[in-house]
Amino acid sequence: MGSFLRSFFRTLSFFGRVFLHVHSQKTPPNLVHQQLGGDVEVKRNAVEFRNVTKSYGDNVVIDNLNLSIPQGNIVVLVGPSGCGKTTTMKMINRLIESTSGEVRVFNQDIQAQNSAELRRRIGYVIQQIGLFPHMTIAENISLVPRLTDGKKGHDLTKIDQLLELVGLDAASYRDRYPAELSGGQQQRVGVARALMANPPIILMDEPFSALDPITREQLQDELIRLNQELHKTIVFVTHDMDEALKIADELIIMQGGQVIQQGTPDHILRHPVNDFVRGFIGEKRLAAKPALTVADVMLLQPVKMSRYKGLAEAVQTMQRKRVTAILVADQDGRYHGIADTADIYKRYSEESKTLADVMRTDAPTLRPETPLWDAITLVQDAPYGHVPVVSGEGKLVGIVTRACLVDVLSKPYLEEAAASGE
């Protein structure tokens, strides 16, 4: 059950980052307009595809693509194998040349630029990492600036800063060779190399797909953290929908060389445009889209006692109700705190003590109107395994436990299994 619960927390916590951005694909303007509460924020596009086609003979891989990628976001291209997502990404730095149409980077036609110089101004991280085995980590990271500037040496201060930025101790890793590092460590070096020339755009082609699940999730978290600091435009290709939902500020779903839907993960989960998008996302994820509040799932009759009750009576109540903690509230429902078995037994021998003497008043609480998805992490990390629900007037109105979260979050999975006869 513990691993089952962690699986749900990991999957459904992806929905916490909501941006409410709606973007039209039909006419790719130079500016993205976001409407938020009546105020219009104008953001420049980093990349634009204008009527772009890529074909190999009679085989059309990309079909009249119109697409705008906003600056400073993690934009994820996702879709089934052969949908054109990697081809689309590689046309940005001209590793693949378009057959027709126009690709613009910061409003400049890339066909008017030297392809080698263009690539040196765009970071690139690939699945195979591509570190040179005969070079040290410092030499690998500094490769692009050395090629660009023609210098033999490298900026150790900047290399050290980048190693620390990607979570590697500079003194320990700077002079090692790639073979001495794990796959996850090598991929961190690959990210540092992509950042060395301070490019405004970084392309990432399934960079974490070959890593083990734990390392992969750590690097996903690291990527999100890094871009909150650096505000780069990251174009990320993956076939993993869970990965896409977790890291994306903006999601682009492709099929048959065309964009089927573009928007924030939250918008696409709420409003899939057709059966293909619905099927590719998966019914389980769609059924779990944010809608519930704490009030919808909380238990309405938590075990509670007056703060004036003695400790022996509290222990008896806990044994009878089979709970490990007591919520402390007055007769009128006013909440005061919480006491668990450890709190009580520390002072159990002091017969004059009451719950008021041992309860904790700093334990986290929830409001009934709090979105359930905002409460998941709080409940998961709660030391007592549950969190009291307190109204705006300070009244204890319920409790959210890990067990009741499992009931709610597992419902669509269990219903689907029952429907399929599993």
TrEMBL record:
Keywords attached to this entry: ATP-binding, CBS domain, Cell inner membrane, Cell membrane, Membrane, Nucleotide-binding, Repeat, Transport
Domain ABC transporter residue range list: 47-281
Keyword Repeat belongs to the record: yes
EC numbers on record: 7.6.2.9
Enzyme class: translocase
Domain of life: Bacteria
Compartment annotation: Cell inner membrane
Annotated membrane topology: Peripheral membrane protein
The CBS domain, residue ranges: 298-354, 359-416
Record-linked SUPFAM superfamilies: CBS-domain pair, P-loop containing nucleoside triphosphate hydrolases
Keyword Nucleotide-binding: yes
Main location: membrane
GO molecular function per UniProt: ATP binding
Catalytic activity field: a quaternary ammonium(out) + ATP + H2O = a quaternary ammonium(in) + ADP + phosphate + H(+)
Quaternary state and interactors: The complex is probably composed of two ATP-binding proteins, two transmembrane proteins and a solute-binding protein.
Protein name: Quaternary amine transport ATP-binding protein
Organism of provenance: Tumebacillus amylolyticus
Top-level taxonomy: Bacteria, Bacillati, Bacillota, Bacilli, Bacillales
